[in-house]
Specification:
The structure is a homotetramer of 193-residue chains.
Chain A (H helix, E strand, L loop, with lengths): L14 H21 L6 H8 L3 H7 L3 H24 L5 H18 L1 H13 L3 H18 L9 H16 L5 H17 L2
The structure holds a DNA duplex (21 and 21 nucleotides).
Pfam family, one (chains A, B, C, D): TetR_N
Organism (chains A, B, C, D): Caulobacter ginsengisoli
Keywords (chains A, B, C, D): DNA-binding, Transcription, Transcription regulation
Chain lengths: 193, 193, 193, 193
DNA sequence: AATGAATGAGGATTCATTCAT
DNA sequence: GATGAATGAATCCTCATTCAT
């Protein structure tokens, strides 16, 4: 009965429905970006999407689910981009650079949105779910350079680097120096003292 | 009129007033810890403090200000503890350990509270304000070991380490391995490749 | 325009239509039984019937009409069963027993449904309409035993007994003793002091 | 935490508060009487009482509780009146008359309200709670005339008579003949065949 | 200064009903 | 006729804030 309040209500099959869901998500992202979690409410999102509240609730069982969908959508896109990057680079440094570039790109595109989504992800305890993919990805990328990383626990390192990467890219640090500093943190962690 | 909504309304001079403010803050922390930002509301806090809402508003211009006071109080306490640690340790490693111990202690004492405060700090954009002290502190600690850190930009490093330290200690990583991993991240960053 | 909101919209002539109406009514009964008046809504009924809401509205002008149809259907079935019983029994007592058996059977079959329908009947002020048949029936049954009932106003008695019978059978009284008690009430009323 | 949704939220101690609660209950009764359970909603009641919704919720945890309070208030008043009557009358018939007079009075004063309250009482499953007193009362009244009632199970009879009495007085029967018919039903039940 | 009752805007969610396809 | 997506008014309830006492 009381279904999962974080999952969408039904899969939009028809083309029109998919467009509607898409419109809602786009509007939701905009509202979240401009007004923060504070100002994020279903009525506002529906209005911004040019849709009735009822329609919103047709596809999302509640405010939380909408937020969760946003988070997941972003995580998925991010994961995809990371996947590309993870397989690039002949050296550890090159791979690190590729991954960092993705992180920075993701974050600098819509900083306020990225921040709010990070926020929401924690709030909804969606971290674990989303991070599994990225963790695996990162771990794989590390494993590819095992030769350069003697004695490193890949699982552990992947987790730490994920946390560090996120935190730094989301910290508001001057974008110009961000890449250099992230690189330092990552390579330092891995090949450090 | 439109006064700073983040600052306390007036300095409580009388002893009784100070006690009242203290009681409110203690209660606020408890409420925040137990119910999260979601359940944090002025009526609840006032009740938990055994005080009337009116009195709460006598000393805090609004909910936000109360939250801000909590954040600042915590930051101050944290800063104090860090100050102690920053001056300890003959070697860089030792100093780093001392600082990390403080971070972990601060975080592990009331994890839920620490998390919510971190949350709130960001939400209220209080980061800059609070971090100034810690930044200076960290920077000083680094400077003390300048010999071991050739070519390091202390200001920059302090900022990065602060971010990294916070993120890792708040990440929910197994407390048992947390210190080791934090140390690795910090020393790696500083003395890395 | 403002048509009677309690009457069905049109007589389903086609076989398929009749089946559809039947399916809706069956589903409606089930929903009402399982979820009460509270949870009784057109969307739910339509879904339970495996029919679109639009179709439901094709045959019933509104929620109320659907409910009314349910009430009437039940009343009709009940009336039919009573008709059988009303003509049985050589003595007053025997006839009373037959009628009471029907009442109890009707009520105990789907108690929750019976209750909700009673509820709805009152809510929609359908009592008068439905009871006409039963009243006539009861009155007839009494008349058959006029010899045993000197000085009794059959119309009045029929109404009173109807009310009493319904109330008692719907009162949640232990089914084991229900018949005896109903009999006592009825015969007491009729042949009393 | 999730306290009893049927009980009031706090006892109004101050005179003003009591007046407010009283005003709310009076308004609630009026709304219920005029608009039925259908149109009974907290906003409407608050408005009718000249009070803000917030104030209503200060004293009643929800719509249901408000309704329950109304039912209980009515039941209490009714019980009180019955208590008076139950001790009157030298003969069974006289006592029965006294009780029936109270029932009729209670019902005929505000018929629509009485009906809706009966309705609500069932809806909220408050029957048992309220009826205990009346049952005991009735049982006592019967016991007082035990000599006239050989072989009668007072507990059972009290329950049956309660049900019968309510049903008849609430049935919309012509008030002029109501008393006579009720008396017949009651005495018939008790002293019948 | 303290109290806490009162306010009411705001926000989540439901569901009867319509109508374009 | 059938469909079911879309609508949005209606309703419940919360909580930041004020103000009379």
């Amino acid at each position: 009965m009381a279904a999962d309040p974080l999952s969408p209500r039904k899969q939009p099959v028809q083309a029109r429905s998919r467009a509607l869901v898409e419109a809602i998500l786009v509007a939701a992202a905009r509202v979240l970006e401009q007004s923060g979690l504070e100002g994020f409410n279903t009525n506002r999102v529906a209005e911004a999407a040019g849709v009735s509240v009822g329609s919103l609730y047709q596809y999302f069982p509640g405010k939380t689910a909408l937020l969760a969908a946003l988070v997941r959508q972003d995580a998925a896109a991010f994961g995809e981009a990371l996947t590309q990057a993870a397989n690039q680079g002949a050296t550890l440094r090159e791979t690190a650079e590729a991954l960092i570039d993705v992180m920075i790109a993701h974050q600098s595109e819509r900083p306020a949105l990225a921040r709010a989504l990070d926020f929401a992800e924690r709030d909804l305890d969606l971290e674990h779910e989303d991070d599994t993919v990225m963790l695996a990805l990162t771990q794989g990328a590390l494993a590819r350079h095992a030769a350069e990383l003697p004695g490193v626990d890949f699982a552990e390192a992947a987790q730490d680097l994920m946390v560090i990467g996120r935190a730094l890219s989301d910290s508001g640090i001057d974008p110009a120096s961000l890449k250099r500093r992230l690189l330092r943190a990552v390579l330092g962690y891995l090949t450090g003292p």
